[in-house]
Amino acid sequence: MSAESYLVADKGVKSWLTTTDHKRIGIMFLVGVLVALFLGGVFALLLRLELLTPGRTYIDALTYNRFFTLHGIIMIFMFMIPSIPAVFGNFCLPIMLGAKDVAFPRLNLGSFYVYSAGVVITLGGMLIGGADSGWTFYAPYSTTSPTAVAPVGFGVFVLGFSSILTGLNFIVTVHTMRAKGMSWLRMPLFVWAIYATSIIQVLATPVLALSLALIAIDHGFGLGIFDPRMGGDPVLFQHLFWFYSHPAVYIMILPAMGVISEVVTTFAKKNPLSYKGIAFSSIGIAFVGFLTWGHHMFVAGMSIFDTGVFGVLSMFVGIFSAIKVYNWVGTLYRGHISFTTPLLYFFAFLFLFVFGGMTGIAVATSSLDVHWTDTYFVIAHFHFIMVGGTLTAFLAAMHYWFPKMFGRMYSERVGLFTAALVFMGFFFTFFPQFLLGNMGMPRRYYSYPERFQALNVLSTGGAFLLGMGVLLTVGNLLVALKMGPRAGKNPWQSMGFEWLTESPPTKHNFEASPVIDRGPYDYHLGLD
Amino acid sequence: MAHETRASTYLWTWLALVVLAVATYVLSRLDLGALQVPIALLIALVKGLFVVMVFMHLLEHGATSRIFFGIAFTFILLLISLSTADVMTREQDLPVPASGALAPRG
Amino acid sequence: MRAPSAVAAEHFEDLKQQGHAARLGMWAFLGQEMLLFAGLFALYSAYRSMYRADFHQAALHMSVALGTANTFVLLTSSLTVALSIWAARARRPRACIGFLIATLLLAAAFLVLKFTEYGHHFAEGIFPGRYYHFAELPQHGAHIFFTLYFFMTGLHALHVIAGMGVLTWVLLHALQHHWTPEHHVGIELGGMYWHLVDLIWIFIWPLLYLVL
Questions:
Q1: Helices (H) and strands (E) in chain B, counts
Q2: Which residues pair with A515 in a beta bridge?
Q3: Where are the domains of chain C?
Q4: Smallest CA–CA separation between A197 and chain B, in Å?
């Protein structure tokens, strides 16, 4: 190898902390999001422990409320939203475009430090009392709660800013830094997914920032703008909050879909069934995702007119997801399939995402949602997508790009085993919750009637299995970091552009700017 | 970048903005009924376009920036309209049926 | 302070690409700033339809004179900052400096007028949120109008201050004749941020001051 890999090109902690190399920034984000995943998971297990028995198990109600609030905040804002974009988007996007880095490398580093500051502030808020309003911060409870809503809310505000900066960077990079010959329709589908995600990050997050600022200032200084005693309307807070938080779920799933597109094409050694279908449906999701926020407010006191409008608009999003699912399955059909760990995660994703997505269409139907809203049915629905979809794709990406990022290969057998554990743990945790919700168990409740206990115990058991599965998955990769066999440039024999670089890549990715003369999935051309 | 703006263009734009501001003020003193707010906002929109297109050089900068700006503006309209529509279409004091499914128990 | 580099940064092909990226990035950033204020306009719109009469009454207590004066101050500051960019492109560094200073002075004037206005409100007992004690208009709608007024103009004023910071940085470079026809992306971006501040006020002024 003529030049050194990015991992060793500059030495010392300081070189990492002041790096502007997108690959190193991606690695630093990886450490951050894995810590967040672990912490959010701990809170999940703590609250599932409490739910083992109908009454008090080991903590009081206020503590329980804090646990589910912090679980939600940590998982969403510290893990899910940054995860795939800030780790794999950072690492792969410039290389996939044939660029040496993102458009604004110093801003990229800034994004990481803003993220870190947000984490510190939020965790600091946790230590001085946390929040018990749920991650949704609904007024007027959030503005009058005796907990530390203002610092926690401010921490999330800061985390949001990191998300905006990352999205802005990626948008400009895609527009201005594609290599020669790379037209929009030759970009890898992962790039399309990240691009669509970035649009949402830039345009939706400021509305969250405003909502949280209003809550934090209200909590601290009594602004009262959503306080009924002052003539305020709490539902208006929900409009502002969900205007961001619904598109936010597409921030969380679009990058996952991008990963899936890369994995399925590589391991079927085939062009996607319809490249344009997948590419344009990503943009479609980004836009239509902005039109649907009121479906979180069907029973909040919103007018029937708005309920109708949002109910109809919410149905349209399913169309784009369906286009993708058909495409992915059609890509596998008649492909040369290699059964590897990433592909196993793909199958898990397919099943869980479709299941979760269909229940999404179900709850978008307002006449049904009046029964399911604020029950465990909704919790199961979004965990199927968030965990069954996004976390599964994140783990797929960890395995798929592991050889590229670190130059080593992990153990396939252990990888397949831990993937199966994760899937089983997930299923036993969340499938019972559909049943519980349908039976009427409300969400965010500290205690419940006896008849719900059996399913709750099953769910808690599943949660511990899931936790163990994730730990073993990460453990397998950590072991491979030190002891895995060296991986070649392109161990999966993929046609993706990122596999043109060394494993791991050199500091500047390419010796000379590449000229692109083919599409990223032109398997019919044979390998060059 | 397209041809650069001349100093006189900036001056004329400023003048247009001042005239429009005066117009907004004058119109606000009249009683135009239901048209009052739409007219004021329309003038504000025109002023805004002058600032964005000329002062901020969006006319010079290219289609991508214009599209991006248009999308942002569309989403702003979306947020304002649907949240206002909610408030405006709520029914006050819904009649409660005397008996049947919705009647209070006991 | 170092002059902007004559060579593009390492990861860019050339200065043209770098400039194009910088402008696109600033438009994306301004888009998100607009969305930040959008929520407040949504609250204004929703609450106005809820409390039409109260909003009207409350707006009668706003100082049309101060609000309108500030409108002209900002419109003119947009002109002066645009002319400073023109001057840079026309290789007239002293005019560039002059126009930037004029812009900063107008910005300061805006803040003076604004804080004077706040002072008048405070004297009458008009404060945001739970500190409001304006006996003449105790009703909910008026209370909400003024709370919204303080939050919207307060957030706007924060952006004016931030904009002054940005323009000060631009001025420091201008004083060293760094802005030239070849390198003026920085002053352009600074100007764009300043125009946003004007743009937001263009919508705030009729809605809060002109008693519609």
A1: 4, 0
A2: A180
A3: 15-209
A4: 14
ipTM score assigned to the predicted complex: 0.94
Instruction: Report how far residue C36's alpha carbon sits from residue C34's, in angstroms, rounded to the nearest whole number.
Output: 5
How confident is the prediction along chain A (528 residues), in pLDDT tens digits per residue? 447 899 988 889 999 999 999 999 999 999 999 999 999 999 999 999 999 999 999 999 999 999 999 999 999 999 999 999 999 999 999 999 999 999 999 999 999 999 999 999 999 999 998 899 999 999 999 999 988 999 999 999 999 999 999 999 999 999 999 999 999 999 999 999 999 999 999 999 999 999 999 999 999 888 889 999 989 999 999 999 999 999 999 999 999 999 999 999 999 999 999 999 999 999 999 999 999 999 999 999 999 999 999 999 999 999 999 999 999 999 999 999 999 999 999 999 999 999 999 999 999 999 999 999 999 999 999 999 999 999 999 999 999 999 999 999 999 999 999 999 999 999 999 999 999 999 999 999 999 999 999 999 999 999 999 999 999 999 999 999 999 999 999 999 999 999 999 989 999 898 888 899 999 999 887 654
> Total domain count for chain A?
1
Write down which chains contact chain B via at least 3 CB pairs under 8 A. A, C
Which residues lie across from A442 on neighbouring strands? Answer: A375
- C-alpha span between A351 and A348 (Å, rounded): 5
Residue range C15-209 forms a domain whose CATH class is mainly alpha
Nearest-Cα distance to chain A for C87, in Å, is 28
CATH of the domain at A338: 1.20.210.10
Assess if residue A13 is contained within a domain.
no
The rounded distance, in Å, linking the Cα atoms of A206 and A248 is 12
Are B56 and C24 inside 8 Å of each other by CB? no
Residue of chain A nearest B69, judged by CA positions: A203
Report yes or no: B101 at the A interface, CB cutoff 8 Å.
no
- Min CA distance, A166 vs chain C (Å)? 11
User: pTM of the predicted model, to two decimals?
Assistant: 0.95
> Which token pair is A52?
């083992």
Q: Which residues of A touch B83 (CB under 8 A)?
A: 236, 239-240, 243
Cα–Cα distance for residue pair A453/C157, rounded to 1 Å: 55
Q: Which two tokens stand for residue A380?
A: 């199961």
Two tokens, residue C192: 């764009």
**A-C C-beta contacts closer than 8 Å:** 110
